[in-house]
Amino acid sequence: MVERIAVNPQIHFGKPCVAGTRILVQNVLELLDEGVSFEKIIEDYYPELTLEDIHACIRYAIALVAAEEVHLTAAEA
Prior knowledge:
Layout: E1 5-6, E2 17-18, H1 25-33, H2 38-45, H3 51-67
Antiparallel strand pairs: 1-2
């Protein structure tokens, strides 16, 4: 995944992009959330992407959630 996702402060203010492009991981994930298929993303939106690039975007999001610290506080009764 590391070789497919890049974070560069000079591109989109450091937001993660598919390496070698200016395509934001967020944009790919938003299309997936809208129900757009992998094939349609490549065909209609980003022909320079590969299926593996889209999978890398998903893995990147999973890694962020997995690394997130959750701090729970007791709720008042």
